[in-house]
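Apologies for my clumsy wording, but are you able to produce some protein sequence, whichever is easiest, and the tokens describing how it folds?
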Amino acid sequence: MADRVWMAVSVVAAVLMIAYFAFQGPTQAEAEEIAQSWFTALVEHDYQSLAQVDLRAPPERQGAAFDAWSGGVEKSLALYEDARDSGHFETDDLGYAIARATLVGGGTFWKTVLFERSRHAPVLTIRLNFGYGEIYYGDLPRGTTVYLLGYPLGVVNPIVLGGGSRLELDVLEHLDLRVFLERADPAGDGDSRYKVERVEWIPESAQHQVVDWYF
């Protein structure tokens, strides 16, 4: 009898522990891993991997619904790439263009400055370090175009290397982004993973500097 009572107590304790952690939501490390996977898959146009961590993706990894979703993401990225040579781009509601422009997951360093943990909608605030002044542009082939994000936000400076041009630019040094996460199935009956719901930048966080550089 005592053994059964102990077993029952152990089962209840295990259930309560699982419920406790489910209520608390992901840890900071887990949220960072989800965000990094989202950024990397987006920069690499890897839609199969992106679908695993993007809240908007359909559960199926092929077919009409998947094609419509991945096509929409690709359109957002293409709109940014078409606009950047004009010197300015517009963000989209879900932050795909922001991730592509800032190259988070593609070389831009970032760190967490705030993590707001909750069961349904945790938020990760990260700070980007662009480090444009630390890049040795002479290592890149002559004629290469680099895109340096400027200020105000949305400005892009397309620079063709190797021409010996001297340019005065107002470039970003740091910028904070918010990464909003949600449970794929809040009711807990299906997919319990946390995924990226959207990404947005925080305009007042932008740190920028006027530089005078030769290219």
Observations:
- The beta strands are 109-116, 123-129, 145-149, 156-160, 166-183, 194-201, 207-214.
